Every structure is written in C-alpha cells, then in structure tokens.
Amino acid sequence: MKEIIQFLRQLQCNNNREWFNAHKADYLRLQARFNSFTEQLIQEIALFDPSVAGLTVKDCTYRIYRDVRFSEDKSPYKTHMGAFICPGGKKSGYSGYYFHVSTGGDSYPDGHMLAVGDYCFTPESLRILREDIVNGEGDFERTLQQAESGFVLDRDGALKRNPKGFAADAPYAEYIRLKTFCLCRSLSDDFVSQEGLVQRTAQLFQSTKPFLDYINRGIAFAKGEYQN
Fold first, then answer.
1. Count of Cβ atoms closer than 10 Å to residue 16 Cβ
2. Of the N and C termini of the chain, which has fewer Cβ atoms inside 10 Å?
3. Is 100 in a helix, a strand, or coil?
4. Cβ count within 10 A of residue 70
5. Residue 184 belongs to what H/E stretch?
C-alpha cells in the first residue's frame, strides 16, 4: 500500500484534471493493485463469512471521480480508495466490511480505517434494530464485546432522547438512540504498509462478524428476506 498512499498524497496536493491525466497510467497501475488486494480480501473474509463468497471487485469498489454537483468542494477526485464487502454487493442495502486507505491523516476521509456496519438505514430497519436491542437482554452489547480492541461505535448524530415509540426508561438507551450502526477502527501507516495486510485485516473483521450478523438480521427482517 505504500505506493498507493504516496500517489494519494500527491493527488491531494494536485487535485486537478491536468495533473491526474498526466499521471493516469500510474493511477491505473495502482488501481489494479488495489483491486487485487480487494479480490484477496473478499476470498479471505468468505472463509469465515460465506455470505460474501462470489462477490467481484466491481461489486465492492468505487470510482475515484467525485460527484461535485451538490458539494462546495469542487475537487474532481477522491483522495482515498475503499472496498465495501457486504452480502449482495455495495448496492444491496445490507451492511458489510469496509477497508479504507487514504493519505494518512488523523480523521476520515484522510485517515486509514476499517468500518463494519453502515451509515444508511431505512426507518424500518432502524425500528427493528432498536426493538431487537431493547428486547434482547444484552445480546447486542455482547456482540460489541467480541470485537477486537480498537473498534468503537460511531455515535455521531445520536439522538438526545429515546426515539419515538420507546419509553424514556427503555433499557440500552445509549444504543437505541443511535441513528447509524457502525464499528470503526483507525489504522496506522505501518499497519497498512506491512506484509500480510489481507490476513491481518480479515482477522480484525472476523472479530466483528457477530455485530454484523446482528445488524444484517434486522435489515433482512425489514426487507422481508429473513430466513431462519
């Protein structure tokens, strides 16, 4: 990943079409390398989570071109590469495992990171997940405890009060007030640059599978696709 990070840092300093077109051959070569990493990561994750078996790189990766139509930032290119590996692919509506490499900053989107879950939930999915948490006698909290050290719940945007339909004294209020369900873990330059990245990343993701299974079960219920 060292060369990819170096390219992204150069792109951050030269985020314009002229520079990118002059270095497009470098980008395509590094994109192929990232795609190869993604393909290997899919295969490694499928060993403990068969729901992602058979996914292609295209199912999990994104274009580097930014959609600037509704953004004040008109920079034409993303300065990160990411892979979102989830059942059915990135457009399925299910949550998954996300690997993100960037310029090496301190926070998103510049920081390297892993994320498990998602940020976009339908109202029905949120309702079901919250009901599961309230009635689950702590089983949701136990999924969090199984995740490797360093994974933390993203609490950005959490409600200040329990959502409509839930009593003010409902149990596990800190969880049912969440609007997104996502575990995040920052990665260092050293982590993403050393040998064995695929295996080390998959090992961390494996510890979060109980959490992801819990989330995707609620989504499947909401979509009418749950099979016991």
1. 11
2. C
3. strand
4. 5
5. strand 181-187
Task: Tokens for 189, please give them.
Answer: 């330059």
This prediction has a pTM of 0.96
Residues in CB range of 203: below 8 A, 6 or more apart: 148
Query: Which DSSP symbol is given to 91?
Result: T
pLDDT, tens digit only, all 228 positions of the chain: 999 999 999 999 999 999 999 999 999 999 999 999 999 999 999 999 999 999 999 999 999 999 988 888 899 999 999 999 999 999 999 999 999 999 988 888 899 999 999 999 999 999 999 999 999 999 999 999 999 999 999 999 999 999 999 999 999 999 999 999 999 999 999 999 999 999 999 999 999 999 999 999 999 999 998 887
Count of CB atoms situated within 10 Å of the CB of 7: 19
Query: How crowded is residue 172: how many other Cβ atoms within 10 Å of its Cβ?
Result: 18
Q: Which domains does the chain have, with CATH numbers?
A: 2-223 (3.30.930)
Distance in angstroms (rounded) separating the CA atoms of residues 166 and 117: 23
What b/e string do you get for 183-193 counting C-beta neighbours within 10 Å, with b at 16 or more?
Answer: bbbbbeeebbb
For the record, the structure tokens of 122 come out as: 């339908």
Helix (H, G, I), strand (E, B) or coil at 21: helix
